[in-house]
Amino acid sequence: MESTASFTTNPIFIHSSPNILLPFKNLPPKSKFFRQRRRRPLLIVSASQTPNPDDFPPPNLSTSLRRGYERVLTKFTESLKRETGFDLRNAYAKADEAWRKADVKLEQFRRHLVPAFIDWNQMKRWKDVKNWEPNRIGISILYAFVVMVSCQRIFMAFRAPRLEKNKRELTEAFMEALIPEPTASNVRKFRKSVWRKSMPKGLKMKKFIEGPNGSVVRDISYVGEDAWDDDPEPPQEKMVQIISSDVTLRADEKKELMEGLGISEMSRASCTWRERLKIWNELLAKDKLTEQLESSNAKYAVEFDMKEVENSLLRDVINKVTDNNGARALWIAKRWWRYRPKLPYTYFLQKLDCSEVAAVVFTEDLKRLYVTMKDGFPVEYVVDIPLDPFLFEMISSAGVEVDLLQQRQIHYFLKVLIVFIPGLILLWFIREALMLLHITSKRFLYKKYNQLFDMAYAENFILPIGTGSETKSMQKEVIMGGDVWDLLDELMIYMGNPMQYYEKEVTFVRGVLLSGPPGTGKTLFARTLAKESGMPFVFASGAEFTDSEKSGAARINEMFSIARRNAPSFVFVDEIDAIAGRHAIQDPRRRSTFNALIAQLDGEKQKTGVDRFSLRQAVIFICATNRPDELDIEFVRPGRIDRRLYIGLPDAEQRVQIFGVHSAGKHLAEDVDFRKLVFRTVGYSGADIRNLVNEAGIMSVRKGHTMIYQQDIVDVLDKQLLEGMGVLLTEEEQQKCEASVSFEKKRYLAVHEAGHILLAHLFPRFDWHAFSQLLPGGKETAISVFYPREDMVDQGYTTFGYMQMQMVVAHGGRCAERVIFGDDISDGGRDDLEKITKIAREMVISPRNSRLGLTALTKRVGLADPPDNPEGGLIKYRWDNPHVVPAEMTLEVSELFSREIARYIEETEELAIKGLNDNRHILDMIIERLLEKSRITGLEVEEKMKGMSPLMFEDFVKPFQINADEEGPLPCNDRVRYQPLDIYPAPLHRC
Predict the structure, then answer these.
(1) Confidence at 860, pLDDT banded by 50, 70, 90
(2) 70 is catalytic
(3) Residue 685 in 3-state DSSP?
(4) Mean pLDDT for the chain?
(5) Residue 887 to residues 847, 858, 884, 909: CA-CA distances in angstroms?
(6) What is the per-residue pLDDT for 612?
(7) Which CATH superfamily is domain 474-604+613-648 in?
């Protein structure tokens, strides 16, 4: 039975195919999409009976494949659009459009650009050198570069075969020299080298072969028996070497001689390195197979030279430790006291296989390991190891850091001493306990009774609750100089053990005088001493001895009596100048108090030399004053006051620490940085800084802040400054006053103040600029606040260069008006002129003046001239002193005096004008800032000037420098050399 099958497409797909095929007609025939689809064609075959073959002729195979492909693609396009919303038809259209544009560009390039390029490169155009365009010169350089590169490539292509041949010849020669002949001696040498690399020196292994009958035969050829011994050269190889090195024999004669002697060694000339390498591989394979076959019948005997094996392993550890400069071993050595649990050796090997070990430190005797794990608890262990030759190889293969611990051998006598130290310490404690028991047994009840009596009836007596070690230290809360704490330590050492001074026959300090400005911490030091010492402390004020009902002498005697009964103790008297001052002792009542104090101090001094046990009754007298120069000379003589300690104002670093101590516990914001404001606290004491912090807290509460911000501290500093000037306006009132002032007036003030600000910032070491403000307190003026630097305050005198800088800055206001407005300047600089004239007079009478420095230009009225003091100030007299008047001068000296004043004023004015003109852009910036905000700070000016390239002045304060490394005579500074007076009568005097 036959059946007829025809391949047709479904009529439904036939009617829908034209619409689907429409986008594909315009695709390029070499599209990537078609290439991918052609790799895996989709075949759809459907069978149906055809009623009339003439109406529907059977299609061929290609038509069926194409229609099936269109059907699948149609479904894929509809599914993609339904699922993702992406229409492939638009993509195909865009791709077709891009293809057409590319075709147009290609056709344009072929028809227009290529002919134009060929025409541009015609030889006749290149020959016309005079009419070359600039681009033709560049193209010619490019062509020359391409030609050079092409020639180089061609040259390298010609040289490549020769270089390749040289490489091959060099490789062949190297391999010929590298691969030795596979002789029996060379094979044995190779086995020995392998053994030496894998085994430590001192380990020998003998091999025995067990026969079928049970007999054991020793294998002499086994290399483990004599691997570290060099084999003697075989006679056969020696004979070959002798024949080969004989130059009198020809090659055929050498070959004939070797054959006659029966030498069958392989020659390098007759065998290449590849053949030798093949023979080597065969020999090694045979040896490996032989060892495997003999392993069942082989027995080994191992011999150890323990000392040699230890030395070999130690060399391996030293040569192969991790290159970390012994950091791991040093860390282990410093922590020798730390407890480390022991880890079994087998468990350590398991951890090593699991890569859990981070570092290993060998001891010097190779009997112990300090192991550090990567994680876990604990991290460090101790492992006792046997003498394992393969341990270091396993540690190295695991990638563990290795180090070696160098142990120092403790001397025998030192070991004995370490054993006896605990016993000696115990005996010393027993001795001290017996001595204290003997001393205190007689005084204990009496002293306790006196202490209770003093606490009940005495005033100003402090009995400590605990010892000094139990008391919390106050040194972190009290910021003072290093000398203060040195004295405190010295007093603590003496009070702790005064016997050491008695044994050396040394009399310790009995009186200490603390001096310094108010608020620097004199009383605070005494409180710290009382708290840190943990000893009884008697304190009083100098005013109490004059205002109390009891007489001052009686109170002095009572105070020292209480201190002696509770000795060792301290006696502190504040404001000692009230009873020991030169003017105070003129009062009869105070005179008696002073005599009683002197008697107590002298009696305490005499009492210390009675016996050794009186040292236990040591009393140290401490007093404080703000005016040490007014104390009576009888009081401050040595033997009564043995130590004088000056507690000065804190420096910048100490002020920052004091601020941190006083602000601890207060809520400070993150923007608080006292280091930016420390220059505004020059001359502040610790009490002033504490008051500043407290006022800042009040200011923050007034503003409704939850924390203290930087601006609150700035506002307090400004408030304290402006209150001293009589300015008490609020911020709203300040704004109203500024609005009522005309713009012209405000502009004059801004220009004037900007001149001062700019010139002050042009000097490297001028005073710190805090801020400048227009119309402070509603007054039609301006203010600039400057603070002196720390070094200027510390040195205690004014330098000549500093006075010059003061004059230049004082000229800034009037000179800025002249630069901006011309000669039409205001009269607002009268204060500046007075300051300039005063400074100029000071500079004229200064010793730095080369013309009038040594001339007597001033004298004192009604007072004797003080003697010259080499440590005094730079200028002996001041013009603002009411007792200083000009001295008697001739007309010529007076004229020179006037000319010198004018010269200093004119020089500084010219310098000010030059600085303002050179930095006019910065001057305009400061003026605009003042007009906009009415206020500018020194930090803002410094920040703005960093990016504006200012032309700075030279440092006038910098001293004359001498280079000690230079040879020859020392340089001479001509500026400080005095010159004869340049005096002559003025024209006015000649008439």
Answers:
(1) confident
(2) no
(3) coil
(4) 76
(5) 16, 4, 9, 28
(6) 41
(7) P-loop containing nucleotide triphosphate hydrolases (3.40.50.300)
